[in-house]
């Protein structure tokens, strides 16, 4: 057998497990699809009630209703392989007395005893059963079901199941294979299907992509939008293909369009890969669960010029049945937040304990803040400076934390001139929620962090960042009339003061602010009252009221403006500074903003660049 044929055999066998495991993508990974017309399918009879209440083990004996697609592939020892995929029919049964699954198609059948489960191929998401006879290998991969609902990025399924049955036959001249992908389960009664309303389902896509010389596993995700009144179903998303080593090979888009048959739980339509205008493949499925909570479909697609065939399954769960995040103090599912902030970079020379500005002015840092289900925590990423630091209890400094702030400490290793040094990292996060005595925020907050210095180094970089983050108000939810007043606090930093000894660190800026916004005119005005604190002496200096004003577009959730007084700032020049903000919450209940301005140094004279963030909430 040639290497090409062997690649086909090993890829098919190994990719079976990948194709049946959980997909990615999630509800936030794709835009809302554009509906496309599809033919109305032939109505199916009202289903017989299922013997199983759900698919969570243990199961009772049952022949399951299903939708299936079948693919064939041949990898000859010499020459290019061939592959096709199309809609098909099969029978899938579980027999409790013999504890085995049975699968049969028009020209073949196979039994899989539960005792034939392959522990090496199986995992937390998947049971894989293997039966070998001579040069033939049959494999059945069954996705596990769970009573837990999961999350939008990782939905679990209680009533809808997915499986792939594969038969591979190898000899000296070729490897041939068949693959049947199907969804099955406890279907929704036709009488329980809604006659009106809409729903969004998050989708988990899995399958196999067969090429002329190999087969790749694929997995992905997306969304499905359903209009029960019209019977229309549209969806799209993306997927990636993976090689036998688990490495990602390629990424593409998928599109689905179908129509629910009148008086039925079944739908049928088209499935396309690459672009919506490409020739369509098959897409057939039905709703599962007592209240149409889930759906399952089998899909197939062949490239227009031939040579490649795709097939697989799609499971979906109603987004309304899944957990969602509340305020920032009640996070449960993955969420990426809008961010804005300011950064100062300077150098400490240890022998003289002197400071020097590395960059002459403050800058806007490339920072992300998100909540991760995996770590059950916020995760901050400032790329090379602070790389994906999970703010977990493991690094929380309980002694330094209080009712207003959580403090986290960790280290980062940097190597210069072949010498590795541990840079200390301290991150402070303003606690969201009603219990914060400083300010009680629900949809926005801020964090500050410093990286360095390392006193043992002759010169050590110091990076200080202040970042506001939050859940922005959708433009469509912005008020278009009336006005609101907001009370806010500020947090900021400065450039290095110019002193004779050069031993003074940059000031810390705190204070309060107020903002008024006219939603009908999209105009804002406000005042900021900053206070500069000397970090070494603790001396506080009130810098006076700084007025600002700005505007936006009616209905837009962002705004910008500048300060009333013009200043000439060392390292910047003459400017009115800037303020750039974003409303947060379902209806602009809060806001967060980045500001950049100047100050007169209360100790040394001259001017300094100061900047930071502002977070606030409505007072009326």
UniProtKB/TrEMBL annotation:
InterPro entries: OMP/PagP_B-barrel. Keywords: Signal. It comes from the Bacteria. Residues 32-48 have a biased composition (Pro residues). The keyword Glycoprotein does not apply. Residues 1-22 form the signal peptide. Residues 25-51 are annotated as: Disordered. This is Transferrin-binding protein B C-lobe/N-lobe beta barrel domain-containing protein. It comes from Sphingobium yanoikuyae (Sphingomonas yanoikuyae). The keyword Mitochondrion does not apply. Coiled coil: none annotated. Gene3D superfamilies: 2.40.160.90.
């Amino acid at each position: 057998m040639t290497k090409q044929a062997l690649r086909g055999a090993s890829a098919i066998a190994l990719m079976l497990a990948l194709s049946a495991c959980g997909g990615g993508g999630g509800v936030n990974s794709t835009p809302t699809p554009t509906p496309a017309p599809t033919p109305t399918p032939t109505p199916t009879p009202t289903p017989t009630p299922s013997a199983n209440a759900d698919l969570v083990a243990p199961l009772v004996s049952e022949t399951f209703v299903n939708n299936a697609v079948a693919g064939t592939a041949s990898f000859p020892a010499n020459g290019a392989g061939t592959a096709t995929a199309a809609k098909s029919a099969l029978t899938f049964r579980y027999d409790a007395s013999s504890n085995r699954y049975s699968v049969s198609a028009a020209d073949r059948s196979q039994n899989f005893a539960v005792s034939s489960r392959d522990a090496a191929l199986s995992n937390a998401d998947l049971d894989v059963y293997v039966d070998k006879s001579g040069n033939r290998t049959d494999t059945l991969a069954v996705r596990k079901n769970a009573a837990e609902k999961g999350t939008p990025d990782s939905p679990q399924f209680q009533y809808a199941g997915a499986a792939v049955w594969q038969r591979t036959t190898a000899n000296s001249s070729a490897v041939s294979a068949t693959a049947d992908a199907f969804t099955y389960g406890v279907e929704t009664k036709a009488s329980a299907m809604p006659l009106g309303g809409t729903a969004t389902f998050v989708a988990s896509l899995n399958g196999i992509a067969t090429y002329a010389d190999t087969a790749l596993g694929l997995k992905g995700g997306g969304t499905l939008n359903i209009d029960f009144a019209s019977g229309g179903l549209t969806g799209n998303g993306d997927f990636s293909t993976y090689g036998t080593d688990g490495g990602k090979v390629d990424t593409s888009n998928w599109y689905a369009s179908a129509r629910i048959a009148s008086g039925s739980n079944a739908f049928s339509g088209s499935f396309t890969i690459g672009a919506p205008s490409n020739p369509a493949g098959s897409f057939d499925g039905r709703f599962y669960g007592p209240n149409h909570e889930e759906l399952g479909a089998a899909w197939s697609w062949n490239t227009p010029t031939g040579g490649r065939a795709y097939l697989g399954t799609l499971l979906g769960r109603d987004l309304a049945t899944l957990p969602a995040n509340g305020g920032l103090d009640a996070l449960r599912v993955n969420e990426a937040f809008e961010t804005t902030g300011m950064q100062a970079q300077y150098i400490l020379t240890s022998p003289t304990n002197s400071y020097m500005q590395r960059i002459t002015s403050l800058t806007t840092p490339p920072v992300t803040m998100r909540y991760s289900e995996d770590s059950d925590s916020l995760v901050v990423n400032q790329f090379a400076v602070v790389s994906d630091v999970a703010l977990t209890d493991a690094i929380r400094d309980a002694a330094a934390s209080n009712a207003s702030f959580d403090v986290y400490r960790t280290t980062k290793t940097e190597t210069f001139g072949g010498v590795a040094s541990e840079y200390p990292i301290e991150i402070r996060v303003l606690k969201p929620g009603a219990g914060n005595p400083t300010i009680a925020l629900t949809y926005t907050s801020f964090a500050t962090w410093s990286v360095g210095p390392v006193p043992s180094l002759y010169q050590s970089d110091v990076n200080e960042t202040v970042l506001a983050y939050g859940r922005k108000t959708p433009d469509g939810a912005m008020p278009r009339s009336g006005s609101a007043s907001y009370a806010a606090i500020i947090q900021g930093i400065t450039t290095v003061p110019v002193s004779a000894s050069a031993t003074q660190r940059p000031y810390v800026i705190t204070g309060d602010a107020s903002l008024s916004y006219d939603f009908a005119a999209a105009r804002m005005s406000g005042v900021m009252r900053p206070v500069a604190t000397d970090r070494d002496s603790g001396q506080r200096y009130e810098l006076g009221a700084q007025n600002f004003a700005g505007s936006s577009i009616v209905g837009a959730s962002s705004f910008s403006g500048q300060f009333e007084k013009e200043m000439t700032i060392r390292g910047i020049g003459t400017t009115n500074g800037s303020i750039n903000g974003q409303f947060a919450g379902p209806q602009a209940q809060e806001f967060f903003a980045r500001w950049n301005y100047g100050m007169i140094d209360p100790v040394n004279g001259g001017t300094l660049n100061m900047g930071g963030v502002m977070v606030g909430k409505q007072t009326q």
